[in-house]
Structures are given as C-alpha cells and as structure tokens.
Amino acid sequence: MSKTILGAYCLSFSYGHKRPALDEISIELMQGGIMALLGPNASGKTTLLKALAGLFPRNEFSGIVRYCGLDFFGYPHSERAKRVVYVSQDMRAEFPLTAYDAVMMGRLCYGARLFVHASRADHDAVQSAMERCACWELRSRMIDALSGGERQLVLFARALAQGARVLLLDETLSRMDLHHQAMAGRILRGLSAQGYSTVLVAHDVNLASEWADTCVMMQKGRVVASGPVKEVFGAGHLGGLYPGAEITVAPSPVSGAPKVYFGRR
Amino acid sequence: MAKPTDRKQPVRMMIAGVLAWIVAIVFALKFGATGGSDPEIVAQIRLPRVILASAVGMGLSVAGATLQALFANPLCEPYTLGISSGAALGAVIGVALGLEMSMAGLAGSAFLGALVFAFVLYLIASRTRSASMSLLLAGVVMGFFGSSLVALWMALADSSGVQGAMLWLMGDLSRARPGGSVFTFTAVLILALMVWSRWRALDAFLMGEDTAGSLGVSVSAVRRRLVIILSLLIGLCVSAAGMIGFVGLVVPHFARRQCGSVHLGLLPACAVWGAAVLVLADLVARVAARPYELPVGVVTALVGTPLFMWMILRRGRDVT
C-alpha cells in the first residue's frame, strides 16, 4: 500500500481581512499518485498549491503541511525545493533569458560552487529534462520570444530538472497543444510509476480525468468532494461546482475514464 | 555535449568593459578643466576624481541591476525607486547635524536615509507580494517626498550653501579627495562582491517571488539582506557624489542585452561598464563647457535618455 508523501491538515489562510481563501482544508497525496484539483475560479486551488509548496510564511496560515510525516517547514528552503516544486501557468519574461537558462534555474537548490555557473550533472539534468519535454531545440531562444505553449514546455522541463518528488502543476499544461498535453500526461504517468507524485490544477476537466487517479473538488476555499476520479465525477459534484454548464458525464469509449460534456444539450 | 548558450559572451563583455574603463581613465587623467597635465593636478585632483567616478559608477550599476532582479521590474534603479532621494535626505540631515566634515559620518547618515526608504519599499513589496507597478509608484512618490524635504531644507538654509547643495544634488564629483576616494572604492568593491555572491538567488528573483521560493530561495531573508547591502552601497555613492540618475538603469539594460540575465556574468559586466561610463561622463562634464563644470548627473541624463529610448525602440522591434 502506498504511503502519504504530502499532506495538509486543517489548513486555513486568508489574504488580508477577506474571507478565507483556504478554510480548514485537509488533503493527502499518495506516493506515485496523480491528484486533480478542480474547482471554479477563486475556489482556492492556487493558494492551496502555494501553501503545500511552503511559499507562505509559517505565521501567515494555520494548520500544518507534512512531507513524509514530518513538518515540511522544518526543512531549509533548498531542501524543500528538492522535495516539492510549484509550477505556475506562465513565467515572467521581462528580462532576456534563454530557455536553457530558465530550465537551469531548476538546479539552483543543488548549488554548485559559488562562482561556477553549473556542474556537469546540472548540464546533464537540464538537457535530459528538455529532451524529455521536447523543448531542447528551443534552448537558445529567448523566453520572451516563445509562445505560451512553448513557455509551458520550458516550465515543465524546469520542474523535471529540479528533480523534486512532488510536482504541483498550476494550470501548467493549459496552453500546450494536444500533442504536447498528451506528451506531458505520459511523462506524468511515467513519473508516477517511478514513485513521483503530482497535483494537477486544471480547468480542463477532461484533461484531469484522463491523467489523474484521484480528484479533489474545491469551492470557496473548502473541499466539497474527494476520492477516485470515477467516483467523484460519477457522483454529480461537477454540476454543483459549475452550475449553468449543463454537465453530462459519460465514460470515454477509448480509455473508460469519465468524460465531461457541457453546453447546449 | 553542445553548450546551448554562449558562456563566453559575459567574459568578452567584461574584457571590452575593462578596456573601455582603461581608455576612459587615460583620457580623464589627461584632460581636465585646466587643460594641463601637471603631475600635482593629476595626482591630487584628477586621480581621486577618477577613482571616485569609478566607484560610484560601479556601485550604482550593480545596485540598479540588483534592484531590477530583486523586484522583478526592469525599471527599478536607485533613482526611480526613490532610494537615492532617501540617501540625499539622510545626507542633508547629516549636514544639518554637523556631520559634513566626516566622510564616514556623511556616508552613515546617507546610508540610514537610504535604509529607511529601502525598507519602506521592502514592506510594500512584502504586502503587495511584489506587485511591480505598486512598488514602482511607491518608489516614485517616495522619491518626490525625499526631494521635497531636501528642497525645503535648501529653502530654509543659508543661501550661500544652497548653490553647492544644488550642484551636489545634480551629481558632483568635484569633492573627491585621495583618501576618501580610495575608501569609497574599496567599500563599493566589497559590497558589490557581497551582492555578487548571491547571484543564484538574484537569477531566481527574475521569475517573481513565488517561483524564487519554489526554486529554494528564502525570499524574505535574501531580500532583507540585499536591501541592507544595497542601502549601504547607494548611501555611499550618494554621500560621495550626490544623485546621479540613469547609470543604474542604462548600464544594466545595455549589459543584459549583450550578455543575458544570468547574474554570475551580468554583475561584473555592470560593474566595469558602470565605472567606465561614469568616468567618461565626468570627463565630458569637466571639459564640455570649460572653464565651467557641468553637474555629472546632467550629463548622464542628457546622454542616457536618448540612448535608453533607442534601446526600448530597438527591443520592441526585435520582439515584434
């Protein structure tokens, strides 16, 4: 039986004096698991991912985040980065930086010698990650000259180069074309077989249902449903999350995964 | 394995910068307000001035590049963020308290002024989670506030000292003295090295603070330390040479275009090019309107503005 690798327990957080962005959230991510985190806009998905990644100061939220049973905030920052990586949906491109240098940033937590740019192991890890994500040929291009989908490939490669056991992907696949989304899904599946775990935030519920094993649905900072994808999708929660979308769930004739149809009946 | 980026470009940029710096120094020692090359004038007046210009140019360029990374905004520099105004205000308060006779006393009060303004920015950055525009607007407003207080002091002060203070505020390297210049240069070099040793964290900050945190950087601790180091650096530069704009903006932009944004190569390139540019600007300030001397801040602004406009237009054309 697989063990819990990352867990949040009674997590509450608010931005200023507004209503809580996270309200007593408890979730557990299994080793080797792919968890889809679904919910309407402003339901607290990104905030939850950032809290799981340890990006908020410890005194700004209540509750606890545990990595393999230990308080995640007990680890130094660089050790946290070797275990859990948060990947946003886009990267800032105000400064001239090549795709290669952007991916090399994933190796920052391994800190080679002070005034040495990167070790041979860092170069190899970056090349391997970029080849795996089919973006090695973009290595010399400036990131501000890349399309949104290409930048997401670079972001995904950076996450792989970082080598963390837990990937927190915040809409990271949203701008990729179908070919690259399928490639990223296969990579996630391959990583899952090697014991890596992923939390996947996606507004594309079919993408989530295709690649995830479990699903957590959030609304107004709370968990409204969680469990295996087939059970949660089949229980009619999606209609409650997205009222007016006229949702129908039916199994995919190819993979058997639940597929969501919406819009005019 | 093929190297995807040209790692030699920052080295070439450094070598070119050092050559430009040497050429600028040679001309700056040879020409001056008097036109002659009397060894006494060179040793006692021009050489200290060249050393001070090098220190201030180096300090402002490194501070500009670091602030741009720290707040992930290419428009940040000591001048636009108002930290120079804070340092000037601190220096003016130091003068009011009778500290102008001591280099360390003046630098110390300028440092405190820079530190107060930089920490207000730091708090705003923490509260707004580095929303770039809020930070820049806050910096501009604080810059006005600091400048207004300095202007108030000048309005109330003895009129005989006002012209000197005005010149100092527009950038003035004429107060360079042999001992003081070497002290400033050494201090700037040490502080710049302290900034450089954090090049990896600065790279991560380019991507925003959430990404920097996810890459393993202790965002608040690194930012706090760098704010203190930069306040010292800017305080030193402003107390020694007044407010000199554009060097901290134009030199990092130029260096980034030539050698990319990896701070391992970028910061040394900024340091040598910043030194070369200010030595050259000071030379122009001394000889352009002989026998009068122009404020060096006016020269950097007059040359820097069209140059920066051209860089923006060229960048826009490249991207489109």
Give the SSE layout.
The complex is a heterodimer of chains A (265) and B (320).
Chain A: E1 4-13, E2 22-30, E3 34-38, H1 45-52, E4 61-67, E5 70-71, H2 77-83, E6 84-87, H3 99-104, H4 120-132, H5 148-162, E7 166-170, H6 178-193, E8 197-201, H7 205-211, E9 214-219, E10 222-228, H8 229-234, H9 237-241, E11 248-251, E12 258-261
Parallel strand pairs in A: 3-8, 3-9, 6-7, 7-8
Antiparallel strand pairs in A: 1-2, 1-4, 4-5, 9-10, 11-12
Chain B: H1 9-30, H2 39-70, H3 83-96, H4 103-127, H5 132-156, H6 159-169, H7 178-196, H8 199-205, H9 209-214, H10 219-241, H11 247-259, H12 263-287, H13 296-319
Helix pairs in contact in B: 1-2, 1-12, 2-7, 2-10, 2-11, 2-12, 3-4, 3-5, 3-10, 4-5, 4-10, 7-10, 11-12, 11-13, 12-13
What does the model show?
- The complex is a heterodimer of chains A (265) and B (320).
- Chain A has 265 residues and is α/β, with parallel strands linked by helices.
- Chain A has helices at residues 45-52, 77-83, 99-104, 120-132, 148-162, 178-193, 205-211, 229-234, 237-241; strands at residues 4-13, 22-30, 34-38, 61-67, 70-71, 84-87, 166-170, 197-201, 214-219, 222-228, 248-251, 258-261.
- Chain A has a single domain, classed as 3-Layer(aba) Sandwich (Rossmann fold), CATH 3.40.50.300.
- Chain A contains 9 helices and 12 strands.
- In chain A, the strands form 3 sheets. Chain A has a 6-stranded mixed beta sheet with strand order 6-7-8-3-9-10, with helices on both faces. In chain A, strands 2-1-4-5 form a 4-stranded antiparallel beta sheet. Chain A has a two-stranded antiparallel ribbon with strand order 11-12.
- In chain A, strand 7, helix 6 (178-193) and strand 8 (197-201) form a beta-alpha-beta unit.
- The longest helix of chain A has 16 residues, at 178-193.
- The mean pLDDT of chain A is 89.
- Chain B has 320 residues and is mostly helical.
- Chain B has a single domain, classed as ABC transporter involved in vitamin B12 uptake, BtuC (Orthogonal Bundle), CATH 1.10.3470.
- Chain B has helices at residues 9-30, 39-70, 83-96, 103-127, 132-156, 159-169, 178-196, 199-205, 209-214, 219-241, 247-259, 263-287, 296-319.
- In chain B, helix 1 (9-30) runs parallel beside helix 12.
- The longest helix of chain B is centred in the first third of the chain and has 32 residues, at 39-70.
- The chains are: A alpha/beta (265), B mainly alpha (320).
- At the A-B interface, helix 2, strand 6, helix 3 and helix 4 of A face helix 8 and helix 9 of B.
